[in-house]
Amino acid sequence: MSSDATPDPYADPLRFGQRVQILRERRGMTQAQMADLVGISPHTLRKIENGQQKAPGLDMVMRIAEALRVRDLADLTGRPDGNVDLFVGPGHPRLAAVKAAVDSFPLADSVEPPPVAHLEARLHAAWRERHASKNHREVLGKLLPDLIRDAQALVRHADSASDRRRAQALLAEVYSLSQFFIAYQPDSSLLWRVAERGMVAAQESEDPHAIGVASWLLAQAHRDSGPRHFEAADAVNREAVAYLKPLLSDADEDVLAIAGALEFELGYTAARRRETGTAWRHWDQANDMAKRLSADYYHPVTSFSRAVMGAHAVTVAVELHQGGESVRQAARADRSVIKSRPRRARHRIEEARGYRLDNQLDTALASLEKAFEAAPETIRYNGYARVILLEEVESTQAARRRRAADLASRIGILAA
User: Fold this and answer.
1) Could you give the CA distance from residue 230 to residue 383 in angstroms, rounded to a whole number?
2) Of the candidates 145, 143, 152, 141, which has an alpha carbon nearest to the alpha carbon of residue 110?
3) What is the pLDDT of residues 55-106, one digit of tens each?
4) Is residue 344 domain-resident?
5) For residues 244 and 208, what is the distance between their CA atoms, to the nearest angstrom?
6) Alpha-carbon span 249 to 259, nearest angstrom
7) Which residues, 6 or more positions from 343, have their beta carbon under 8 angstroms from its beta carbon?
């Protein structure tokens, strides 16, 4: 290793502050940026990092872990025996089968492709089940290996240019469905393979909706990789928005919706940067797009709709650390019904984050309980929910501590 290489947090028994500094610098964050994200002064953070202030309590440790997107608390504490994965859930039992299907590239034509209409119907049913199921990863894990195999076969056997474009659009859609299964699984390289293959297939299809969906998912993969990748996320989003803009005057609702979803993603990333005006401006533009949709329309991939804009407002307020505003937006959003169980659970988790920012901790736990009722698998694999619960199982209030421990046990994050 070169002398100027970033040290490994496990190489020496480093104190907590040194670990924070190393992991912050690996994220490409300044002390000022980090301090803003966790709600302390740069001076206080500097004291933590240089050891002038003792290691903080659990609440601050969790906030630091959230800001740094630390996947394992051991990276901060230096105690491998205290292993707690935060932003990656446990590997799903069906992950290996899905991975094998993604990684397989048969050279012989041993798989007979299904009729196009048959594959389209199966995909439609898979999306419907994804939104309706409490445990959508289990449902998708059963369906994806065959869908991936058949969509790849359809592309290989396409007889004409138009047939191949149609097959590529279906393959891109299968890869999009796959990302909802693979997200938050302990295999980031698999997620990137699927996101990039989905983008390539969508471009080959020349289908505007397929390109929009693949861009939406690829941008999320960039953004969720950390602050250093926000620019890449924005670049993908902006390119897709510019590509779709000339088509919107006479576009169908699916294309309008994916354009609106991409617009919101620009706002979401801006909120992650704490760019308040930019974040809400993009939310307003996305909301204008939503108003062009039918009242009961619901995008099959992104859940973009009129109803979901309230949930998106909660997310923007939470990412901007506007506790009071996030609570106000949560109250407004409750007037709308989000049809998708996983999306509804995600909204409840965002609500919980807002209530936590506003120091309404019992209400935050109530929101997490609603998330569990809507879709247990969504909360099980969500790092933010894990942070809140792990913090509250250490609460000094016995009733809250028992409530948090009960939910954490049902989710499975307190299992030995």
Assistant:
1) 19
2) 152
3) 777 778 877 887 777 766 777 776 655 555 555 556 789 999 999 999 988 7
4) yes
5) 7
6) 12
7) 131, 303, 308, 311
What is the number of structural domains in the chain? 2
Nearest to 86 by CA among 186, 210, 7, 207: 186
Structure tokens at 137: 């990863």
What local confidence, expressed as pLDDT, does residue 80 receive?
A: 54
Can you give the pTM of this predicted structure? Answer: 0.79
- Amino acid identity, position 43: H
Domain assignment present for residue 377? The answer is yes
Who's near 57: CB < 8 A, 6+ residues apart? none
Q: Is 48 helix (H, G, I), strand (E, B) or coil?
A: helix
Place of tokens 């050279």: 107
What size, in residues, is the chain? 416
| Residue the block writes with tokens 């070169």 | 2
- In order of 89, 99, 143, 167, the CA distances from 140 in angstroms are 16, 13, 5, 20
- Which CATH number characterizes residue 35's domain? 1.10.260.40
Residue 126 lies in a domain: no
Question: Which residue numbers in the chain have pLDDT < 70?
Answer: 1-14, 71-72, 78-90, 108, 334-336, 414-416
Helices (H) and strands (E) in the chain, counts: 21, 0
Instruction: Determine the Cα–Cα distance for residues 279 and 318; give it in Å rounded to an integer.
Output: 12
Last residue of a domain, one of 33, 65, 82: 82
Integer angstrom CA distances of residue 108 from 119, 153, 161: 21, 10, 21
Look at residue 408 and tell me if it is in a domain.
yes
**Sequence-ordered alpha helix ranges (H) in 308-360:** 308-319, 323-333, 341-357
Q: Which of 64, 82, 100 is the last residue of a domain?
A: 82
Query: Are 395 and 361 contacting, i.e. CB atoms less than 8 angstroms apart?
Result: yes
Q: Tell me the two tokens of residue 279.
A: 């974040």
Residue with tokens 């500094």: 21
What SS3 class is residue 297? coil
E strand or H helix at 177: helix 161-182
> Which residue in the block uniquely carries the two structure tokens 């004291």?
47
Residue 108 has a CB neighbour count (10 Å cut-off) of 5
What is the domain extent for residue 347?
307-416
Q: 363-374 burial, b if ≥16 CB within 10 A, otherwise e?
A: bbbbbbbbbbeb
Q: Hey, what are 161's tokens?
A: 């240019």
DSSP 72: B
The residues, any chain, with a CB within 8 Å of residue 87's CB and separated by 6 or more, are: 69, 70, 71, 184, 383
